[in-house]
Amino acid sequence: MTIDWKKVVISPDTTIREALQVIDKEALRVAVVVLECDKLAGVVTDGDIRRGILSGVELSEPVSVVMNSTPIYALDSLSSAEHQSIMQERKILSLPLVDSSGKLIGLKTLYETLEIEKRENPIFIMAGGFGTRLRPLTDNCPKPMLKVGDKPMLETLIKHFKSFGFYNFYISTHYLSEVITNYFKDGKELGINITYVHEDKPLGTAGALSLLPSDLPKAPLIMINGDILTNVDFSKVLDFHQEHTADATMCVRDYEIKVPFGVIEGEGNLISAIVEKPTYRYFVNAGIYVISNKVVQSLKGKDEYLDMPTLFEQKHQSGQKVLKFPIHEYWLDIGRHDDFKKAQADIYSLGITL
């Protein structure tokens, strides 16, 4: 496969938002930062950007704020086998190539020719909601089975997981459950395993975990709402959870609120400051979670309603390790008619398995 490495070259003044667009569009997971005369200045990956977001960096800031200014690189004069050896030894997927003066003249990429590594981690998809805000579309069809493009959004979500090697699926059903079970059956036509968990009464996102079977794989579980359209790299979410030995990880999105007025700060009648048209940034729940088997087992036998934010708060208060993982990729919660229309327009540009 031939790549045009020049498409991922950016300057230090490029904004983080623009760098993200380059990384996502070219699908090389990296952008190369160069100074004038093409001198290598650094590289930036989506991991660098996620860490920046967590520390409060804004997407409008220059990429130089988050880039790795001491990247691994190699001379172009080395053999292809030597380039490959460097990447395998340092566990990187791409390697900037420079000449003897430090000028960037190429980018070597390590392509995995082996089959995608299978991951036994259970994927738990919540698909039992009523989809009230999407009526009349959901009068005879559960929301996750509404077609975005030419396939139900639930099928697109499952195939996206499968592209990262996941094959053990558990689907929570309630409203019009037979529509889902009749369509997917046991999952064998898609090359996966599907086990259905039926909620006789709505138990909430966390409460449904108590219904999972006793033979559930012990590996950390990924849980997601079935009405989400996204191209998130789920393997990165899982790797983050495991590397940090978390008990529970919540995917979050950066959300801005711009106040169009001057905000008055102070106590009582005293004014301490006037902030003109401020922007407040928050992390909001993206409806994607990684849950350790220990947490799942702690819920067994509890046939009671429990939502995921409450579960995270309970585990935090009990001293367990709960983390947040920022996602910058495309993400859309299809809860309203406007969202559904947007999904129809966006689906073919996401680069996901259809």
Task: Give the topology.
Blueprint: E1 9-10, H1 16-26, E2 30-34, E3 40-45, H2 46-54, E4 74-75, H3 80-90, E5 94-98, E6 104-109, E7 119-126, E8 147-148, E9 151-152, H4 153-162, E10 166-173, H5 177-184, E11 193-198, H6 204-207, E12 221-225, E13 228-230, H7 234-243, E14 248-258, E15 262-265, E16 273-276, E17 279-291, H8 293-298, H9 308-317, E18 322-326, E19 331-333, H10 337-346
Parallel strand pairs: 1-2, 4-5, 7-10, 7-12, 10-11, 14-18
Antiparallel strand pairs: 2-3, 5-6, 8-9, 12-17, 13-19, 14-17, 15-16
Question: What can you tell me about this protein's structure?
Answer:
Pfam families: CBS, NTP_transferase. This is Nucleotidyltransferase family protein. Residues 1-59, 67-123 form the CBS domain. Keywords: CBS domain. InterPro entries: CBS_dom, CBS_dom_sf, Mannose-1P_guanyltransferase, NTP_transferase_dom, Nucleotide-diphossugar_trans. This protein is of the alpha/beta class and 354 residues long. It folds into 2 domains: 5-109, CBS-domain (Roll); 119-349, Spore Coat Polysaccharide Biosynthesis Protein SpsA, Chain A, CATH 3.90.550.10. Helix content is 25%, strand content 28%. The protein is built from 10 helices and 19 strands. It has helices at residues 16-26, 46-54, 80-90, 153-162, 177-184, 204-207, 234-243, 293-298, 308-317, 337-346; strands at residues 9-10, 30-34, 40-45, 74-75, 94-98, 104-109, 119-126, 147-148, 151-152, 166-173, 193-198, 221-225, 228-230, 248-258, 262-265, 273-276, 279-291, 322-326, 331-333. The chain has a 7-stranded mixed β-sheet with strand order 11-10-7-12-17-14-18, sandwiched between helices. A 3-stranded mixed β-sheet has the order 1-2-3. Strands 4-5-6 form a 3-stranded mixed β-sheet. Strand 10 (166-173), helix 5 and strand 11 form a beta-alpha-beta unit. The longest helix has 11 residues, at 16-26. 33% of the residues are buried.
